[in-house]
User: What shape does this take?
Amino acid sequence: MVQLVDFLFYLIKNAATLYFFAIFIYIIMSWIGGRDSTFGQILGKVVDPYLEMFRSFIPPLGMIDLSPIVAIMVLRFATMGLDGLHQMVLSWL
Assistant: This one.
């Protein structure tokens, strides 16, 4: 049972890390172009729903959109919180 829990948390943490890099690449693509490519559109379908949550309450400052920065910070904090949750679950088992 402990190995299953370890494996699940391992998968969740790696998925969060992968999502972090997807957001990062999407941000870079907004600066240098490429969002209109097939890869950019697929990445947008994956990343935009999460970013829209933050865009709804963080307005852009001119041409600067700060919502991806906040979204990445929230994702990283959630990932760090997973470590504590993982330890808590392991202590119950």
Observations:
- The longest helix spans residues 2-32.
- The chain has a mean pLDDT of 91.
- Residues 60 and 85 are 34 Å apart (CA to CA).
